[in-house]
Amino acid sequence: MKSLNLKERLAQQQAAQLYRRPVCLESPQGVQIRIQGREYLSFASNDYLGLANHPDVVAALQQGAATWGVGGGAAHLVTGHLLPHQQLEEALAHWTGRERALLFSSGYQANLAVISALLGSGDTLLHDRLNHASLLDAGRLSGARFSRYLHNDMDSLSTRLSRARGNTLIATDGVFSMDGDLAPLPDICRLAQQQDAWVMVDDAHGLGVLGKTGAGSLELFNLSSQEVPVLMGTLGKALGTSGAFIAGSHELIEALIQFARPYIYSTSSSPALACATLESLRIVQKEHWRRQHLQQLIALFRQGAQTLGLQLMPSTTAIQPILIGDSAQAMRLAQQLQEHDLWITAIRPPTVPNSSARLRITLSAAHSTAHIERLLETLANILPKEQE
Ligand code: PMP
C-alpha cells in the first residue's frame, strides 16, 4: 500500500513542538475538574456562565430525551426537523432581535455553511487577521477572493474595501477567541455601508456574556439586522450545550436552506439537546446575576494581575490571556500551574501569531472571588521565579 507519509508528518510535528493531544476529563465540565485522578481548579473552558452541568439544563435534556428521543434521525430537510428544533430557532431569533434563526450542529459547520452559500468566485471576503479558523476555512470553501485586514484596523479594512470586487462580505469575530478583545463593530458597519458591503459577526464568545440580556456584541453595540445582516452564535460556550445558529432576515435564512450544503447534507443535532438549550437560554435571559458576577470577577482578576505586573490583553470579556511570548515557556508555566492544582491552557502558534504564546485564562460565573484570589496568588508565586 502506498504510504501517505503519516509517520514523517507526525515526527515533524513532534520535532516542531507542535504535537497536541486531547486531555480526558474524568468529571463533568466545570470549575472543578478531574484529570488522571487529580482534581484541578479550571480556568480553561468556554462555559462562561457555568451552565454546562446546570441541574435544570441536565433535567431538560433527560426530559427531552424521554419525550423526543435521542437522535434527529435525518437531515432537517428530510424528517430531522423536530418541534424542539423549531422552538429553539424561534427563541434564538427572538432573543437576538432577528427575523429568523437556523440551527447547525457546530459553529464550524455554521460558518462553512453561511459563507459558502453567500459567496462564490468573483466575490470578496474580508477577514480580520485574528478571525477564527472556521471563518478562514469557510472562505476557502466558497471560492471567493479573500483578504485579511490588520486586527481591528479600520484603515487597513478601508483600503481592502476600496479594492473589493463583486459581492463583498466583511467577517469578524465579535469577541476574539484568543485575545478576548472586542471588534469595533460600529466602525466596521459604517465602512461597510459606505461601500455597500455586508457584515457578518461570529459572536461565539460574546453571546450570553455581553449585552443587557446576554444577546451578545450586537446587543452591546445596539446593531440592527440592516447593519449586521449575518449573526453566527454558538451554543457550546456560554449556553453550555453544543451546536450553533445563524440569525438574520427571512430572506437570508431561506437562502441558507436552499443553498448551504453543510446544512442540507447533514443530520440535525439531537432534539433532546434542543430541549436542553431552550432551558439554558431561559436561564441566560433570566439570571442577570451570572453576567454581573462574571464582570466583577473579570475586574478583580485584571486589577490583581496588573498589580503583579503581568502582561494582559485589552480585554473586558471572560477571556483574559496572559501574554508569555515563547512557546516552551508558556508550556512550562502551564505545567507549573498544574503542579499547584490549577488547569490553564497554554496556547501556541499556529493558533496564535508567532512569538505570542499565552496562557489563555477564561473566567466563569461559576468561579468565586476566592478562586480568583487563589489564581492570582499562584501566578504571583510562579511567574517571578520563571523570569529570574
Ligand atoms: N467561532 C469561534 C470564534 C470559535 O471560538 C469557535 C469555537 N472554538 C467556533 C467558531 C466554532 O464553534 P464550534 O465549537 O461550535 O464548532
From TrEMBL:
Pathway: Cofactor biosynthesis; biotin biosynthesis. CDD domains: KBL_like. Residues 39-379 form the Aminotransferase class I/classII large domain. Its EC number is 2.3.1.47. Coiled coil: none annotated. Belongs to the class-II pyridoxal-phosphate-dependent aminotransferase family. BioF subfamily. Catalyzes the decarboxylative condensation of pimeloyl-[acyl-carrier protein] and L-alanine to produce 8-amino-7-oxononanoate (AON), [acyl-carrier protein], and carbon dioxide. Homodimer. This is 8-amino-7-oxononanoate synthase. It comes from Thiopseudomonas acetoxidans. The gene is bioF.
